[in-house]
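Risk register update: the risk that structure generation would not scale has been downgraded. Supporting records follow, first protein first.
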Amino acid sequence: MTLVLARTPARPHGLASTLPRGASLADVHEALAPFAARTLGPGWERLFATPCDQEGIILWTVTGERSLPYLALSAEERAAVRASLGRAASELRRAMERKAPALLPLLFAAREIPDWDSVHLVDGIPVLAPWGFRPEKRALGDSPVAALDDGLLSETEPFIPFGPVAATAAALVVLALTVLWLGPSLAPRLDAAVTCRADAAQIAALSALLGEEGREQALTADLAALETELARKRLACPIARLPPPPPLPAPPMREAQAPPSPPPQRPPDAKPCDEETQSGGRGITRTRHFLGPQPGRVTLRYDTLIEPDHIEVLYRGRQLATTWIPVSGRGTLSFDWRPSGTGPEAHTVEVVVTGFGLSTRWRYTLGCPR
């Protein structure tokens, strides 16, 4: 079954292509997919999703039964996906360094992704879609996937110089035959030439060394006896009783504390969290949501149906989460909610949805901090 993981414009706004000049997404995929299958095993040809250009919109497809976005996984599942991606990126790089160095620029370009929204888990294998794009403000090589590479160099295959080795083996064989042939005639001369002489200075130095070793052993024994005697005397001495501690001073009188300030109230023009927001149609729709003073993790669950829409979350003009590009179908955005300051704007965020199609429809639910 063919799954569509993402839909992006051929030239997405705010993203820059990382492909080498003159190379297309189809060319890069055709070169990397079979190499990944040969290096990592069957099924890993899906590591880079297949790009299909349909009149300016790229459909990122993959063959499989079940797909889950990275941000929808649990913490343990995300850690397992990162570990699997790290091993795959490292093994592919080392294999190309040994066997196909010309493919290294294509690999470095393809593992550039906009963010973790581009990672999916398809039948237990991580899949990148879209790939070959990076945010314009991010430096090349700072991709989340590139950061998982262990950086270990590839081990080169050992080179055996068969010519010199064969020549050396032949010389050893000739030498052994010569020794066997001349051995009986050389044995008496070798016996006569071997003598054993002992230097008096060396004998004296050896005797002095043996004496020092004996004194060291005696000192070690004396030290052990002293430590044993000291421990015995410590056990025999009574332990002095400590005097009782002085009474604690009376705690100072506490001043009357001001009553706690009342909790912030939801502004009339702000919607509560955990409430679904229906489509505003084409154009820009801005909706304020009240999240309250309690910090925590906030998740926005959206469904943009068929026509892609762009979604971002703002807090006092600062971006907390975004889809980066127009997306279609269901997905999630998450961010950490840490309100600051006071006033009606301190506990509210603004969700901005930009619809591009004439008949676009969408809906989303902004959850409360957990």
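Supporting record for the second protein:
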Amino acid sequence: MKFVVIDDDPTGSQTVHDCLLLLKWDYSTLVKGFESKSNLFFILANTRSLPENDAKSTIEEICKNLKTVIAAQAYEEEIIFISRGDSTLRGHNFLEPSTLNCCLGPFDATFHIPAFIEGKRLTINGAHFIDRTPINKTIFARDKIFGYETSNVKNLLFQQSKSQINFEDIKNLFLSDLEMLNDAENNIVFKTLKNLKNNKHVIVDVENYSQLNKFSLVIKKLIKQKKYLFRTAASFISSISEKKSFSQSEIFFSNLRLRNKEKFLLPGLIIVGSYVELSTIQLNNLLEISNCHPVEVDVFEFFKINSSDNNHKQRNLFKNKFLKEIRSSFEKGKTPVLFTSRKFMSLDSSELFNFYNLLACFIAELVADLKYEIGYLISKGGITTNFILSKGLNANYVYLEGQILTGISVVTYNLKNDKKLPIVTHPGNIGTNDSLVNIWKVFENKNIF
């Protein structure tokens, strides 16, 4: 059984380890995923950074290539498709699985499982919570692009479908149902799942891994008879694949840091692109360390440059200014922390998509110019990280080493000099106030535990 996860940003692998994350979906790269030793691999579609039409086109292209590879290679093992989305409900939660159903289906059912247990994001009685706070009462509900006003997942899905599905056709699998569920053919809940057809949408309650694992066991039995699709956060991927989160030792990660030809440790670089409140708190705590040098990208200045006529020369000057400041930090033995100014642009959603992508591309270009000069990279924010991996480093794939902290992964990228650059893929909405500080201390070999 092979699990193919189509991820809307690079952070959905935060509960598993030892697998490939594909940044491209051409034939040869997809074959590499299918033939990898792990029972799962991720395709980093980065669709959360795209408006609806572009996201749909990207999913369609991925599906077309998947079908070509599967047909040509004649794989005999069962293939399970998972659409990984954000546990804070930001993203194309209806569009992406709907497109997958059109291209790879028809499926008997699509299960929506947004619970991320490690981050205290739980679904109870059909409503979604963060640490027992209804999701619509959190800052994530005020997202400039993907904001919402309800914590009820069924209501949100119906709204995002723009009435393409009937409200009555969206079902719930409640905690009480999970308590009764087992894999006996005469079990009433088992039979309900078995009888699902015509791509019924089902919201699944999850409060802990024992419930999720019970559900996964039943799904594995039914999958031999049924064709199911899943739109989930990260916890379900760990449960269904049995590829658990794996926290390596502090020494393991510090030893990943690259050295130069003289065997001296190369400096680190930290990028913070995420705008969520937690990211700002983590950033401010990091900048209290005297050995971390702040390098701020003013978003209004960047916008002004990109909006001007003949901006190529201005953009290059802007870029070179940052490269000079970052390299100066290296020479002084400090860790540069490149971050976008904590300001919001007053743009409509399509303009925001475009601007954030331009900004992420700019940051990716900086990393591309510095990739042989650094010993490790810490990247905060899913969209930013994806652009760094796919555009800046032009990676076909990266290898998932494991989690340095709960929900925060480390991948390695093969440089052309045969060295492997460690990259921390730190989600914007995950971690404690001191996560960035603690990760920096691990790579700088400061004893914190």
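The domain at 2-241 is CATH 3.40.50.10840 (Rossmann fold). On this basis the risk owner (M.S.) recommends closing the item.
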